[in-house]
Specification:
Blueprint lengths: L20 H4 L2 E7 L10 E10 L5 E9 L4 E11 L5 E9 L5 E11 L5 E10 L2 E13 L2 E10 L5 E10 L5 E10 L2 E12 L5 E10 L2 E14 L3 E12 L2 E13 L6 E9 L2 E13 L4 E9 L3 E11 L5 E10 L2 E12 L18 E3 L6 E5 L7 E8 L4 E8 L2 E5 L7 E9 L2 E9 L4
Antiparallel strand pairs: 1-2, 1-22, 2-3, 3-4, 4-5, 5-6, 6-7, 7-8, 8-9, 9-10, 10-11, 11-12, 12-13, 13-14, 14-15, 15-16, 16-17, 17-18, 18-19, 19-20, 20-21, 21-22, 23-24, 24-27, 25-26, 25-28, 28-29
Length: 442
């Protein structure tokens, strides 16, 4: 089998790269597929991704490769440019065919106001040598809060397309109301709105969705949230209702249970209301073995008994870095592996073992609002190993990483919804939390 990361491109010379992971790449991933039943069996690579970072921890180059069984070819290349303070300035993406010919080119341009707030995002495509704006998003602020977002799309028939979202906040910065509108006959018309209430500790208590019909707001769905916090356990429960026949009817309930002593052990349960009773439908079971450093996430369906649907296996190294992600399907003889993603790092971090009681000081987080990444500058404090966590306004954990350095770049998950979040940083020197807002560029 050929070495995975000795990759030599065989097409247009301007795009030739020879990858040396330890010298140029902070993170590499490779996805592979086969039908083996044990981890030790052989397998062939199908694609890989290389990410290169600049001196200021900004991701300047992303290369996606595909393997045709004999050769590696560059599938796409993305160049990112940033302003001196770390804000995104431009994303340029080139896509290629297996012969190395350019088949598509697109870019995203970011613009900011004098306060450093994101005010304009343009998504453009190269059409016969000219950049054509396909989507334009503008942000309107009231002080440091987003008051409205306008999304204008360039339709092929030339007709205007506009969607607008307006926000209202409480004194604590929580979003109270989100009104979505669309352009109809040269005027904005209400589509739907979301109204939220919060607990005293800023957790969402109720989420009400209403649609605009016959010049009135008509209720259509509601979600009620409740929380249980103990030193050993966190349980988040949400109950969804639909407004039918003039009454609120329960439909689904989710129960998310997290073991705080074993952070990667938890259960996510989905239930349906039938005949006034809650009936189990599906659940995800998270189990972590600290000795083997293997976590399994098993999805199951209730058909009178819990039937396995699929399973994901994460393997961590002694530094608590994710090394492999393996997707499996159930068979009569046990679990059959389907795909595997392998992670390669050129720098390493260690987990935190103890924390002092005092807070971290002189820490700045930017850009804020942000689209897909943040940078945390810890100032002149000594560089040390730290644990980064990202929580939403309901206290749910979305991201956790072990990091090290004085300027930390954190890439936000693609599936992360827009909204208010809190970043938490913990080290042997102390800990602290800072609010951020995630906005969408589209």
């Amino acid at each position: 089998m050929r070495p995975l990361f000795t990759l030599v491109c065989f097409f247009t010379p301007v795009w030739v790269f020879t990858q040396t992971p330890q010298d140029t790449t902070f993170l590499q991933t490779a996805t592979r597929t086969d039908n083996w039943l044990s981890f030790s069996s052989s397998w062939d690579p199908i694609d890989s991704t290389s990410i290169r970072y600049g001196d200021n921890l900004t991701r300047d180059t992303v290369l996606d490769w595909s393997y045709d069984g004999e050769n590696w070819y560059l599938k796409s290349l993305t160049n990112n440019s940033f302003l001196p303070d770390g804000r995104e300035e431009r994303i340029l993406t080139s896509e290629f065919d297996p012969f190395g010919d350019l088949v598509q080119l697109k870019r995203t341009i970011f613009d900011y106001n004098q306060q450093g707030q994101l005010q304009l995002v343009m998504n453009q495509e190269d059409m016969e040598g000219d950049w054509t704006t396909i989507l334009r998003v503008t942000y309107i602020y009231d002080d440091n809060r987003i008051a409205a977002i306008n999304r204008e799309q360039n339709l092929q028939d030339g007709s205007p397309s506009l969607n607008r979202t307006e926000f209202k906040y409480d004194d604590r910065g929580n979003i109270l109301e989100e009104v979505n509108q669309s352009l109809v006959s040269d005027s904005l018309v209400n589509d739907y709105r979301i109204i939220q209430t919060y607990t005293d500790d800023n957790l969402v208590q109720e989420r009400l969705e209403e649609e605009w019909s016959f010049n009135n707001w008509i209720s259509r769905s509601r979600i009620e949230y409740s929380y249980l916090r103990t030193p050993q356990m966190e349980i988040d429960t949400s109950v969804s209702f639909q407004f039918l026949g003039g009454d609120w009817r329960r439909f689904f309930r989710t129960i998310d249970t997290r073991d705080l002593l074993e952070e990667r052990n938890s259960t996510y349960l989905l239930q349906q209301s039938l005949g006034g009773n809650w009936v189990d439908l599906q659940r995800n079971v998270y189990v972590y073995d600290p000795e083997t450093r293997i976590q399994t996430i098993t999805a199951q369906q209730n058909i009178g008994f819990w039937r396995d649907l699929n399973r994901t296996v994460y393997i961590f190294d002694q530094r608590d870095l994710k090394r492999e992600k393996i997707n499996q399907n159930p068979t009569e003889n046990g679990w059959e592996n389907s795909t595997r993603k392998v992670y390669f790092y050129s720098s390493f971090t260690n987990p935190i073992t103890s924390v002092k009681a005092y807070p971290l000081a002189n820490v700045s987080v930017f850009p804020n609002p942000t689209t897909n990444f943040i940078i945390m500058d810890i100032g002149d404090q000594p560089s040390t190993f730290m644990v980064f966590r990202l929580y939403d306004s309901q206290g749910r954990l979305w991201l956790q990483q072990n990091v090290m350095g004085s300027a930390l770049r954190i890439d936000l998950p693609d599936h992360l919804p827009v909204g208010n979040y809190y970043v938490h940083l913990r080290s042997e020197k102390g800990s602290g939390s800072w609010p951020i807002i995630r906005v969408s560029p589209w």
